[in-house]
Amino acid sequence: MEIRNFLTDDVKSLGIMLYVDNSPKMLEEFSWLYKSWIYSGCYHTSDLLVVHHPEVGKDLPNEPGIILIPCLPKAVAGTPFEDYHFYNSIGCLSGEHVDATAAQYEYLLRTDADVFLTRHLADFRPSFPVHGRGLYHSSDDFKNNMLNFCQRHGVKHFSSFGCGSSLLASSDLMLPFLRRQIHWCEVLLEAFGKDEKNWGKWPGWFRGVTTMYAAEIAANEAYWEMLYRGRERILDVESDLDELIDSMTLHIHAVTTDRCFSKYKLREGEYQSVDPDALDRSRIPQYCQWLALATVEQVKQEVRYPW
Hints:
Number of helices: 10
Distance between the termini: 25 Å
Strand content: 5-15%
Radius of gyration: 19 Å
């Protein structure tokens, strides 16, 4: 079944998958993604598949192109994922509640809520998987532990490090990939154990980025499909890179930083005196800053969004 644009009858071939938990911060971050989806024109060619905590459904937009799928968190007491809430961003995107809907799209983008889409994503449909940037992979401690873990668990690692966080691929590849990523999350968390003394420390081998480690393992496990011709470190461009938005800047991630654009500085009120009209939206940090500061109605009016 083809998904079509309500206004133009054009085929929408991309589903953008994310999870929104019952958190004011996540709702705020989703608003950035939502506004960028509108402003970039991606709403013409893609849908947002928003898997969400049932309590926040009333706070999310109910419009054409936005598919709301309620799902209780998976990282709860009594599961292997308790005390690791980041797991919900992966675990809630796979299963009977979402798979059939996701499979209707030729392509899927698995991402987080705190991202900004650009106009270059609107018609970008790759022949091979396109990976994000996982900024966890630089230290020797990480690399040695990753290789040792894979060896112990019978996975051939092809030294493709740092290939998480986001992923854009055909739905035929994405859906089984998510299942393997979930599997490796469980194995990794079991290996880290319950004692915080064994959880490591950033930027070395660290429990706090288990979902990205799991993505890297799943990608290397399926190397010939996911990485051999895959495009690495394309998505998740850092929000504090003071560069022009070039044609390869498809997707920007609000990374942990004190430099603009910083979601932490935004929440501390440091951008309250900024005049949004004075921002240069052709540059990565100011594009993010403008979208974070602008209201939904301002964005809709500027691009004549029909809903």
